[in-house]
Write a structure and sequence with these properties.
Strand content: 15-25%
CATH architecture: 3-Layer(aba) Sandwich
Radius of gyration: 15 Å
Oligomer: single chain
CATH superfamily: Phosphoglycerate mutase-like
Distance between the termini: 31 Å
Structural class: alpha/beta
Number of domains: 1
Helix content: 25-40%
Number of strands: 6
Largest sheet: 6 strands, mixed
Length: 171
């Protein structure tokens, strides 16, 4: 059964209004949160076969900051196709993933990741995780969905949301 992990980038800095959105770095709070998420990934045996990461600086920095919690050598593909896109575009990207990939992690932004999770989470989803997702998918949030069928067959409600954690939940 394929597993899809969604990680929203951690808190980014708004200190310099001269920096374009695409180039915003992580805030100190985000760097601390990434350490918490890295520890969670390691402790829970999260081992993606592939990480797809938005090309924005804050997502690339998030991947770098959580790398210690991921398996050594896990491939990370950076793509602009995850930046400023809605759930439909992300869904198309996931549907095109090689079927050999059984555990996929996306590192991206809202509202796309939240919309995708809400679209996919169907029957059998963890009630608390679903309720939390319906409230908010904040920076640093990490969600896992077990998918029924192949990536190419993703449809509404075809997955079970098994977890949603935030850095705040873990400290």
């Amino acid at each position: 059964m394929p597993t899809l992990h969604l990680l929203r980038h951690v808190k980014s800095s708004w200190n310099d209004d001269q920096i374009e959105d695409f180039d915003r770095p992580l805030a100190p709070r985000g760097e601390r949160a990434a350490g918490v998420i890295a520890a969670y990934l390691k402790q829970n045996g999260i081992k993606p076969d592939l990480v797809l990461c938005s090309a924005a600086r804050r997502t690339r920095d998030t991947v770098s900051a959580v790398r210690s919690g991921l398996p050594k050598g896990v491939p990370v593909e950076v793509t602009r196709d995850l930046y400023e896109v809605g759930p439909d575009r992300i869904l198309a990207l996931v549907r095109a993933v090689d079927p050999e990939v059984q555990i996929l992690m996306l590192v991206g932004h809202n509202p796309g990741l939240e919309g995708l999770a809400l679209y996919l989470a169907g029957k059998g989803s963890d009630k608390e995780a679903r309720a939390a997702l319906e409230r908010k998918f904040p920076t640093g949030a990490f969600a896992s969905l077990n998918v029924e069928g192949a990536w190419s067959d993703l449809t509404e409600g075809c997955a079970r949301l098994t977890r949603l954690v935030t850095p705040k939940d873990l400290v």
